[in-house]
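Listing 4. Sequential folding, example run.
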Amino acid sequence: MTKNKANLLLFVVAIFWGLGTCMMKLATTANLSTGLLNAIRGFIFTLLSLAFFGKRIIRMTKKEFKLALIAGLINTCGFIIQTLGIASTTPAKCGFITATYIIFIPIFVFFVYRQKIKINHLISIVFALIGMAILTGIYREQSQFNYGDLLSLISAMFFGLSIAYLGNTAKGIDFSIVAFMLGISLMVVGTIWWLLIEKLKSVK
């Protein structure tokens, strides 16, 4: 992948990240089920992955399936918890707190993979957090840390763990396979969450 394509991909991801947070808030405000919401997101993501990368996905090996499945499940935990959290906080706070996953990446890399944290990484983290604070307007929000904020922070930990995992244990795996397995994991776990947890809870 060229540098320009990588920058374009990051730009697109940033747009979807921001829109996704706002849409999740609207959905949860409308009492849409957390599990159902993520199942739908996973279904759409799976279809898009197949549409764009179907040939690569078909050639998936057992090793790639296993590694990508683990990454997908880690990300799914992050998405489910983030959706639960945003119901009790604002999109700006959720977006900012979730973005702190960049702090947890070097922490997981250090404790799990025994790699030293570089000074330039720490400096980059500081500037990234300042940038996110400006973009989200978090400094204008109330400083109270509530339950929704805590869930957003936990989701950030899962996202940080996922990136650390992909950069080390699953290093070199085709990103299209990871994207596909993320969609599958989110769709399946979201459906199970909706049917076995939320549906049963509503019956009681």
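-- end of first protein; second protein begins --
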Amino acid sequence: MKIAVLSNINIDPIVRKLSKVQNIFQNQGYGNIFESLYNKQSALHHFQPNVIFFLIDLENLITVETEENTNPFDVINNWFQKIEAIMTEDTVYVISNGICSSDYLLGIEDSIEIAEIESEWNHRLNSFSKENNNVYQFDIRTLCNRLGKEQFFSTKSWYLGKIKHSNIGQQYIADNIQLWLKAYSNKNKKVLILDLDNTLWGGVVGEEGALGVKISDSGMGMIFQEAQKKFSKIKDTGVVLCIASKNNLEDAKEVFDKNPNMILKWDDFVLKKINWELKSQNINEIANELNVGLDSIVFIDDNPVEREMVKENLPDVIVPEFPTKIDAYEKFIEEVYINYFWKLNLTSEDKKKTEIYLQNVARNSLKQTLSFEDYLKSLECQVGLIEDPKDHIERINQLINKTNQFNLTTIRYSEQEIKEMLDDDTYRFYLFNCKDKFGDNGIISLVITKTENGQAYIIMFTMSCRVMGRLIENYILDYVENDMKKFGYKEINAKYVYTQKSKPVETLYENLGYEILTANETLKEYRLNLDTKSKRTFYVNGCE
């Protein structure tokens, strides 16, 4: 991904920090943003960034561009009109919200306060981002509020080099641009595993009892109650909560059952590994049962010995350092969320993620009591085709960019590229949802086909790991093949691109009758004759 960061003040230190980890446009000078944007021969146009950040210093914009008898609100409106005039559909624009380092602006009529100017900019930005799908907000105001204006800005560096932000402010902005890009690319984590004693409540339940642990609406117990409120909010964004704790199961559950001050409930946690086994073993079991990679997990524990053991045994798991002072706990949880789980947008699947995974736990319990065939029949699985994929771009983006295990090519596309493909008649998007007697799994699979020169190709086949092992993929592929046959194609081409995480599906195509055309260590190419293909086995009521 190529990015540009433009500003009306000197942000060279921020760009230098980002250049160490990003393919970023190195702008010459600062201030005249629109000259580079308008000029088709400019270095910026030749660079062709996918994402452009605008870090606009509102104070500088108003004082420089407000001429005599010119209202600052007109300056703001004019700025957005200029941006709208140069926007293209294949670029994402991220614009900072308004914050001024000073409490008043010299040269602006006294009747207009700085708060009004900031409010007008933010109101205009809110409207602009809602009107344009490729415009996002960069919340620099919250960054400033976290540090405070005195730490975020630097008068000295402004006088010396027109650099408005302090060293710590520059680092904060660079770090949060990185976090924004990670969220935009859907590279956030999926599972948050929590310890119990001195993590979810204060004290040790085995010693103090269910009503003796510290959790309350006042005093030290309030810290843990507020912490649970934050964990609950994280769960509501689609993060799966689990427990890994060295405790007696009965003692731990009693806190949830009997302590009236608990915010989180027993069923807010999808899996509970409460025993005396190694926590690394329990975390490994959680990953296997949820069918997620260890690199999708964050583990929080107050005990430094336990943290180090997990780090040593499971290096892919993120284990943040627990705060040494408990009054910093809330801020720590916020940082964990921002660094590992923050999303730009929430899908309907995100909002019901805990419910979906709890349903899977019930399915797995049933699976232990029946033969494989009887289990699949008993699920009463129904798979449906989504009529208009354009209504579900965010979910398509997730399936493409976050699915690793059931992903035959592991090609990543940006949201803008997805939109362009949806508008191209040579591509077809097959988006499937799934439900059974335990509940609705939501949108679970995406197949993209491409037709050119009289040939049909499957260029992408992804499916959510939570529905793997039910032969749903057999039905989905069968549906796509039959549909391509209806369009007059005699055969269909496909390929598998090897990755370590996608090994579970490396033989999918040949198992379903595809002929191997070429094969090496990284790539296998296939073809299937649609007239002579064999009948597939699946236990699905489908969307014929």
